[in-house]
Amino acid sequence: MSKERLYGWLDSQMSNMFYTSNNPHEVPKYVKVNLRDELRHYQEEAFRRFQFMQDDSLLAGISDAGFQRKQLLFNMATGSGKTMIMASLILYLYKEFNYQNFIFLVNTDAIIKKTHENMLNSSSNKYLFNPSGIFIDGEQIVIQAVENFPAVKDKNTIYLKLTTIQKIHGELNKPKENGISLESLEEEDIIILGDEAHHFNASTKKEKEEETSWENTINKMLYLRTNNKLLEFSATINMDDKNISQKYSDKIIYKYDLGEFMNDGYSKNVLRLQSSDNDDEKMKDAILISQYRKLIARENGISYFKPIIMFKSSKIKVSEQKQQYFNSIIESLSVESLFKYINQRKTAVSLNSTLYKVFSYFSEQDLDSIIREIQEDFEARNILNANEKNMLSVDNAVLLNSLENINNPIRVIFAVAKLNEGWDVLNLYDIVRISEGAGVTRNATDSEAQLIGRGARYFPFKYEDEKSYQRRFDNLNSDLRFLETLHYHTINEKGYLANLEKSLNAVNLISSSDETVKFLSTKLKYSFKNSNVYKQGNLFINETRETNPEDYDSLSKFTISKEWETEYIGSTIETDYKGSLKEDTVIQREFGYLTVDKRFLKKSLQRNPFFRFSNLKNYLPLLQSKDELIESKKYLNGVAIKVSLPKGTQIVDLSAFEKLEIIDKFLSYCEEKIRNNYKKNIGLKIFKPIKIKDTLRDYETIVPKFDTGYITQRIETHDMRGKNWFIYTDAIMNRLEYELVLLIESFIGELESKYNQVFLIRNDEKATRYKLREFEGPRGFMPDFILYLENESFVYQLFIEPKGEDREKEDLWKQEMLQAINGVDIEIIGENNNVSLFGIKFYNSKNREKFINELSTRVNSGFPLDGRVNLFNEEQ
Q1: Which of 443, 506, 514, 773 has the smallest CB count inside 10 Å?
Q2: pTM listed for this prediction
């Protein structure tokens, strides 16, 4: 085991045994119901791994593994909820192994105060257990804080000692009468929970045991009794240190780093906002960005949203001086000075930057009211300097750890490095690096990276009556992205930025420069807004109904296709260090069909905890048994997996393990479809009117800056002024979409001769919430364009969707829905026969003629529309 690490060994060798045991490992119900919140998937995985390591029946016969069970470490990202895992393990160890004595050990008092709120204060909004009480087997369980463990235990009681390593080190090495001592700890088994465990390795780093070290004190407690356990938690175990690596290789039970955490959407996005060394500018910019976030939240109906700014200094004296200066900035704000500052700064920043967007916004606002609100929000009493002198006071500790609370007035924190650990804040959105006295060394940037990781924690605000604990606007590119983005205000200094990049990479923190994106905007034309179509017209969306158990009588109801296609790369193909194909790799391929053997299917189902019958029954209430899942045509019987193979490779050449991996991928696809489509409303063929003026609006989108990539996917703006039939001033779209617009333009003369009103409406997800729902299905569909045609006696609305040939098969259901709109069974509420809705076949170069023919049939009485010349190509 000296070379292989425990978590890797568990990943590769134990995956089968995790879920195929007669006693499958899953979080017990008594744990789930006694926690305030649901465990996330990675927290459940950490818990199950611990269960597995306690299972003597499974581990018997694997004596050569060299694993550890007495001391285990959870190496998990900052903000991933390690304390929640501790809470679940406390309940599990109490119930299953009769442990009553728990010591929570950390190196700072700040974390002790936070953990007291987590574990003991049931009235706190950060309490991790069920606020109504902890009940196991019908008995109420009490968690009691103690300084020493009582010799006579109360029934149904868990004893928890919260202490720092410094304090318990002193207590055990210089015991006092009636105090805790090694002798008192010898009487009963204990569980030690070590938070921020990287602080406990001084002796290991020095390659020698020190009798008086903290590490030695912990080991003394651990080895007092055979059943004592040490469970450590840390985000920053340095396995590059050979001594640390040797110590923990057989102890790290689970690794979930910051990159995984951020990719899973549980964090804010992080953007680096590179600025000058001028602290005055950075302070003013941060004020405006923070207030912009607050106003965007308000405009989107988010009733309470208080973004926090942190000004990070390296010295207390600097921090205090900067706070005084900040106060003077707020007090001296005037309309004249702010107007001048905004316009000067606007000309100095990139057109694609966040700051340009913010300055543009405020340049159109009533600055007098803006200043009044800024001065109220950022007045001196709403600012806290968390320096060493006063940070540990009771009042400040409460303020620091309740910043999300509605009655907490703090908007700004001035802080030194003291807050790098033990500070749980979710609504921190701007971290400003104070330049004066700040270091640019790797040690300095390592500290900053750690702070950014803490600030990146997601703030679960409520939007449209729904609260989410994951990002939800990554693909919307709306202003709401600002509410899911942390800005770190840095300086434009080459050496410093290089070190910061290294520090961020070292902890796998995903960030990008603010200016790797650009903003594209467009507005509704005045000519359209003055039309009767805008003022009085309607669009039509289909109604939906709630689902019932009968709707989930087969996998097809979750939009799962039994004709599934995947790609097998092959073990001999050269990949990069991430396992991805190298850019210049070209593989000739052929297809084969994998027959899904029932033995493989059963094995794969056992390997995926989602498909445990008790869990699956929640999603498929009519499912009677796991055998039915495998045998019935409504479920997995009849699945055909089409596999793309390297030329010369046949399905029969694949090993049993490779076939199992392919089936695993198919089941993962099924799991994703089931989760995503469960309890979504079902679309009906009944359409209702919605007012155009309440649906369409100006919009802006954020797009990447393209240095390379596919030109057909590049989103660009095209000036549409003078073309009254297109409702926006600019067309923001990719090449295929714009090609369609040019084609429609070629028909405009004919259409305007036949119809009084002709408008092409761009239905961009950033501009509207206009979405159709799949007929008798859960999927939503936003057609890219609506062609609106009106005469005195009737209105036609045509739904049009350009679709690349590579996406046609995947989105076939959308085309089927467009065709179904043309059926006689479509009902339009409140309308007679004067309104007709039509769906047109997908548009692309391959389907161009079919598209024109169908459009001609619908809108030109079957006579061919002219404009068959490819105007897009002519324009090139």
Answers
A1: 443
A2: 0.58
Spatial separation of the C-alpha atoms in residues 547 and 207, rounded to whole Å: 63
CB burial of residue 139 (10 Å; 0-12, 13-18, 19+): exposed
pLDDT above 70: residue 867: no
Closest by Cα among 57, 47, 50 to 22: 57
Q: Are 689 and 829 in contact (CB under 8 A)?
A: yes
What is the pLDDT at residue 419? 58
Task: Tell me the C-alpha distance between 218 and 230, whole Å.
Answer: 9
Q: What is the mean pLDDT of residues 805-834?
A: 87
Least confident residue range of 345-359, 448-462, 771-785? 345-359
Which helix (H) or strand (E) is 384 found in, with range? Answer: strand 383-386
Phi, psi of 450 (to 5 degrees): -65, -40
For residues 195 and 830, the model is more confident at 195
Local structure of residue 481 (DSSP, 8 states) = G
- Residue 164 φ/ψ, nearest 5 degrees: -90, 160
Q: How far, in Å, CA of 318 to CA of 679, rounded?
A: 55
At position 103, the amino acid (one-letter code) is: I
**Letter for the amino acid at 583?**
E
Q: What's the maximum distance between 2 C-alpha atoms anywhere in the chain?
A: 102
Question: Which string of DSSP letters, residue by residue, matches 166-221?
Answer: HHHHHHHHS--TTS--HHHHTSS-EEEEEESGGGG-HHHHHTS--TTSHHHHHHHH
Instruction: Give the pLDDT of residue 262.
Output: 87
Distance in angstroms (rounded) separating the CA atoms of residues 164 and 421? 14
**CA distance linking residue 852 with residue 864, whole number of Å:** 8
Is residue 690 a contact partner of residue 538, using CB atoms and an 8 Å limit? yes
Pairing of strands 190-195, 229-234: parallel
3-state SS, residue 346: helix
Q: Where are the beta strands (DSSP E) in 660-723?
A: 682-691, 699-704, 716-719
3-state SS class at 452: helix
- Rg for the chain (alpha carbons), in Å? 31
Arithmetic mean of pLDDT over the chain: 83
The three-point CA angle 787-789-795 to 5° equals 120
Averaging pLDDT over each range in 100-104, 459-463, 556-560, which range is the top one?
A: 100-104
| Distance (Å, whole) CA 503 – CA 447 | 8
Alpha-carbon distance 42 to 48, whole Å? Answer: 10
End-to-end CA, the chain: 64
pLDDT greater than 50 at residue 664: yes
127, 183 in Cβ contact below 8 A? no
- Among residues of the chain, what percentage have pLDDT more than 70? 86
Distances (CA, A) of 655 to 13, 514, 568, 651, 662: 17, 47, 12, 9, 11
CA angle 6, 9, 10 (to 5 degrees): 85
Q: How many CA atoms lie within 13 A of 297 on its CB side?
A: 22
Q: What confidence tier does 492 reach under pLDDT thresholds 50, 70, 90?
A: low
- Beta-carbon count within 10 A of 56 CB: 7
Q: pLDDT digit string (tens) for 529-540?
A: 999 999 999 999
* DSSP class of 724: T
**pLDDT higher at 743 or 210:** 743
Query: What tens digit of pLDDT does each residue of 623-647 get?
Result: 888 888 888 888 888 888 888 888 7
pLDDT at 417 over 60: yes
Return d(Cα 291, Cα 874) in angstroms, integer. 48
Rounded distance, CA 870 to CA 876, Å?
Answer: 10
Say how many CA atoms lie within 13 Å of 790 toward its Cβ: 16
State both tokens at 648: 């010369």
What is the DSSP secondary structure assignment for residue 256, as one 8-state letter? Answer: E
d(CA 659, CA 704): 38
Spatial distance between the Cα atoms of 444 and 448, rounded to a whole number of angstroms:
6
Max mean pLDDT among 112-121, 394-403, 587-596, 803-812 falls in: 112-121
